[in-house]
Amino acid sequence: MSPEYQIGEGSLEALFAAITADGRRIWGPRAAAGCIEIGEIRSAGELARDQVHPISSAKAAAFPRVEKILSYRMDGKDVAIDDPPLPARPTVLFGLRPCEARGFCALGTILNWGTPDRFFNARMERTTVVSIACTRSDEACFCTAVGGGPDHPAGSDLLLHPLAQGGYDVVVLSDKGRALVALAPDRFEPARGAARIALAKIEAEFQAQEITEQLPRLFDHPIWSEQSLRCLGCGACAYVCPTCACFDIQDEADARRGVRLRCWDSCAFRLFTLHASGHNPRETQGQRWRQRVQHKFSYMPERLGVLGCVGCGKCSRACPVDMDFKEHLTEIAKFS
Amino acid sequence: MDELQEKAKQLLEAGTVQVVIGHAAGRGGRRPVFVRSPAQAGKLVHDDGCWQNLATYLGKPEVRKLGRAAVVASPPVLRAMVQLGAERQLGNDEVMALAVVTGGPVRTLATLAAIEGHLASLPDEPPAADRTELGRLAAMTVPERRAFWAEQLDRCVRCYACRASCPMCYCERCTMECNRPQWVPVASHALGNLEYHIVRAMHLAGRCVQCGTCGKSCPLGIPVHLLTLFAERSVQQHFGQGGKASGKPVFAMSTFRPEDSETFIR
Fold first, then answer.
1. Beta strand extents in chain A (DSSP E only)
2. Of the four listed, A170, A235, B214, B226, which is most buried by Cβ atoms within 10 Å?
3. Which of A321, A324, A325, A330 to substitute to test the interface with B, most B CBs within 10 Å?
């Protein structure tokens, strides 16, 4: 894809000001105590760009960790239900990695499986994704093993390529991207073929297809309990994952009124599948780990035609006991 | 083969234990490892990068199934074993520790009493960096401290990595999972997060082994360990106990004594 525009480093602040003046919030990587996370940023100066990845995921912008989906009041024997207004604030996600942008494709597919997810969709319709191609990677990265790459266009509305002279080449990938350019047209110059910083080289150590083919045979294999022995059963991997979509429904209520919330949930938790009877079909951490891999690499491709993993490696970086996803997947692929 | 690897190998060869829980090289750091044959003993490492409190694994059903375990144990791991023993979570016949101090000799400790004896000669306090942070928190006014924690806890996503990595958070069903009724909001909004972290700190007060693993495990770098360390220090100051160097602890937060000096409790 050839770039239409380039934007100078010095023009980013004006672009941010134009986006804000248009009434949109901007989310992107920012420095927080102890890490680089994704959250609201108000100026280009706040945008963190030196990291391979921020620790948290941009999915929270469209699929927040807790969200009110209805409220209700008891009125005698009747129940009055109020739908909350759909989220309307337009958002620009600025400075995502292409893999994370691509994650929105899988996330949107699973959240709209069967019943359209109007909360997620309302946000995504008003969200513009600006990603920056990767010129660096780390050992946790494996986008090229799952069909992505350091400048993969899927999920992005604008894709920026860092230039050697500073600033970026700008590839317009959608109407939403074009509309963003139109907010500050004089800040985008025609592309002049300036030298780009070389893209990161990410060698694929396996191909996702090998794993997808392998998994049905491996359901009862001891590899799951072996790989997950050190897993502590927390939800860090799921909560930083751009494609993990599981949620729990919680009512916070008293006798007269309540709100219904949907909250992120994780298949690593024992409670995730615990039945009211006390039976748990996924009693061991090995079975729960198997679910994580099978869901992303077998069930989602089979049922939805999309992989549930974009190879960003966020789960590996967030894991307190170094459950290295790339390493585990490579081991699984080796069986073939 | 270094002394740690040699001792682990001997324990496995002799059949004294079936697994040695330690740390090995991982992706750019250290990771927990379960060494089950003498030939794998060479994987074991111990240095300052080994910060997980490995005593956490002693109660995990998947690990217990492997047989008797020896644990490569820094002082906080040993304190956790003593406290787990006192709370009847670890039997004396299940104890096997390869006690390590960075740069020091490795000692094999096979009873809770031996661990207590070993700990008696070691300082029982959090690392210097944490003591500095605790001092900074203590110097704040209450509104300042409230603002500090409100900002920090607002970032919490309730992944429970802090709870999962803590050797003293061994409850099979945590208060957070008691949902009939739901005692504490599990949603990661401001109130839910505040309640969760206060409940955890209160449940750890007088039991915290001061390893700091909960804070290091937080993917977002929220220093949640300062809450439990702060509570632990308060218990030590007000009740003169805590510390986990004794197998006969008095539980400050769950003990009733008729002669208690506070009148409200009588």
1. 5-7, 25-32, 35-40, 66-75, 78-82, 91-96, 127-132, 158-162, 168-172, 189-190, 247-253, 257-264
2. B214
3. A321
Distance from CA of A326 to the nearest CA of B (A): 10
Q: What is the ipTM of this complex?
A: 0.94
A317, A318, A321 member nearest B32 (Cβ): A321
Q: Which residues pair with A257 in a beta bridge?
A: A73
Every domain of chain A and the residues it spans = 5-333
Is A238 an 8 Å CB contact of chain B?
A: yes
Q: What is the 3-state secondary structure (H, E, C) of A110-144?
A: HHCCCCCCHHHHHHHHCEEEEEECCCCCCCCCCHH
- Looking at residue B248, its pLDDT comes to 67
Give pLDDT, residue B179: 77
**What are the CA-CA distances from residue A326 to residues A262, A274, A305 (Å)?**
30, 29, 22
Q: Which residue has the tokens 């079936």?
A: B18
- Asked if B67 reaches chain A (Cβ–Cβ under 8 Å), the answer is no
Scanning the structure block, which residue is given the tokens 């009740």? Answer: B239
pLDDT tens digits, A176-232: 999 999 999 999 999 999 999 999 999 999 999 999 999 999 999 999 999 999 999
Nearest to B219 among A229, A236, A285 (CB): A236
Point out which residues pair with B72 in neighbouring strands.
Answer: B98
Bridge partners of residue B30, in order along the sequence: B25
- B32 touches B57 (CB < 8 A): yes
Q: Dump pLDDT digits (tens) for B151-174.
A: 999 999 999 999 999 999 999 889
Average pLDDT value for residue range B260-266 = 72
pLDDT for the residue A100: 98
Mean pLDDT of chain A: 96
pLDDT tens digit sequence for A36-55: 999 999 999 999 999 999 99
List chain B domain ranges: 3-120, 128-239
Residue A202's contacts (CB-CB under 8 Å, 6 or more residues apart) are A134, A137, A141, A142, A143, A144, A149, A150
**Cβ neighbours of B250 (radius 10 Å):** 14
- Listing DSSP states for A233-245 in one string gives --SHHHHH-SS--
